[in-house]
């Protein structure tokens, strides 16, 4: 087992089941089935982890208010929890990894990315985990 896989969060059997349900909801929603999400979910955000092996993407629910979170079914709540666990795991790793929330560009311009410690599901933003690039010529 590599050190990378040893650092991954292990899911309980219940969480594995809930994750599969969440991923199916996301698939249906992105395919155009608006009924796949409960009414409290106003959209999806993406957590993108940039790495050497390619980019990993985790979807998380976006809601109008934080109070809406407790109304969500367990699989949808787990979608946000897994994204936040991923953020925390990468922040703990250190190595210069940074976590940014990035809002979409508007007619007024491109918003500046904000450093974040956790995902705020009430913000219309995607979250990026990036590491500094080493190398180049001096």
How many DSSP helices? 3
Q: What's the average pLDDT?
A: 86
Q: What string gives the helices and strands in order?
A: HHEEHEEE
Which structural class do you get from the secondary structure elements? Answer: alpha+beta
Terminal residue distance: 36 Å
Number of strands: 5
Shape: globular
* Biggest sheet descriptor: 5 strands, mixed
Radius of gyration of CA atoms, rounded to a whole number: 16 Å
The number of domains is 1
Side-by-side strand order of the widest sheet? 2-1-5-3-4
Can you describe what's shown?
This protein is α+β, with helices and mostly antiparallel strands. The chain has one domain (3-130). 30% of the residues lie in helices and 24% in strands. It contains 3 helices and 5 strands. The chain has helices spanning 3-6, 13-30, 74-93, and strands at residues 41-51, 54-63, 98-102, 114-115, 126-130. It has a 5-stranded mixed sheet, with helices on one face. A hairpin with a 2-residue loop joins β1 (41-51) and β2. The protein is globular, with a radius of gyration of 16 Å. The termini are far apart.
Features:
138 residues; five-stranded mixed beta sheet; disordered N terminus; globular; 3 helices; alpha+beta
């Amino acid at each position: 087992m590599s050190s990378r896989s040893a650092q991954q969060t292990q899911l309980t059997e219940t969480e594995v089941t809930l994750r599969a349900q969440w991923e199916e909801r996301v698939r249906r929603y992105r395919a155009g089935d608006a009924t796949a999400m409960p009414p409290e979910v106003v959209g999806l955000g993406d957590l993108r982890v940039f790495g050497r092996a390619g980019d990993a993407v985790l979807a998380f629910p976006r809601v109008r208010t934080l109070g809406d979170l407790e109304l969500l079914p367990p699989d949808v709540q787990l979608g946000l929890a897994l994204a936040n666990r991923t953020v925390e795991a990468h922040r703990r790793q250190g190595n210069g990894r940074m976590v940014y929330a990035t809002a979409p560009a508007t007619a007024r311009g491109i918003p500046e990315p904000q450093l974040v410690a956790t995902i705020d599901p009430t913000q219309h933003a995607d979250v990026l985990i990036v590491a500094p690039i080493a190398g180049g010529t001096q």
